[in-house]
Amino acid sequence: MWQVFAPELRRRLADLDAHASTRDRVHSALVESLPAGDPSIGAVTRRLATSPRTLQRQLKAEGTSFQAVLAETRENLARHYLVRNDLRTAEIAFLLGYTDTNSFYRAFKTWTGMTPEGARAGLIGAPAGQP
User: What share of the chain has pLDDT > 70, as a percent?
Assistant: First the structure.
């Protein structure tokens, strides 16, 4: 699966402007590292060539945290993947860097108040452009 998504993810990361916010740079690095199975701050700091402490300071200055950006990125990607009928929930959990499907279910329910299957039914049934 990683081979399918890798070229587009690398292109997005390469397109980042040097003036992008730290939050945006972390988001882009996460989009690339999540399907590889490493959602850690260490993986992101290696991609961004910075230290974990510097990254945390920069994110704090922007009013956010690594965990907040990670959760937001995972939620947005989960919604994107759920629209696709060819991806099972377990595959989506894997693409989001979860080691087990139950962790993904719990996180998704926290973010949205519904299960991934419930959201999938609502997203697929929603008019175009309205998740």
Answer: 79
pTM exceeding the 0.70 threshold for the entire prediction: yes
Chain segment 70-101, per-residue pLDDT in tens:
999 999 999 999 988 889 999 999 999 998 89
Q: Is the pLDDT of residue 123 over 80?
A: no
Domains of the chain: 2-125 (1.10.10.60)
- Taking the C-alpha atoms of residue 81 and residue 93, their distance in angstroms, rounded to an integer, is 10
Measured CA to CA, the distance from residue 66 to residue 98 in angstroms comes to 16
Q: 37 CB contacts (<8 Å, ≥6 apart)? A: 94, 97
How far is CA 62 from each of CA 9, 25, 29, 73, 129, rounded to the nearest angstrom? Answer: 24, 12, 17, 16, 29
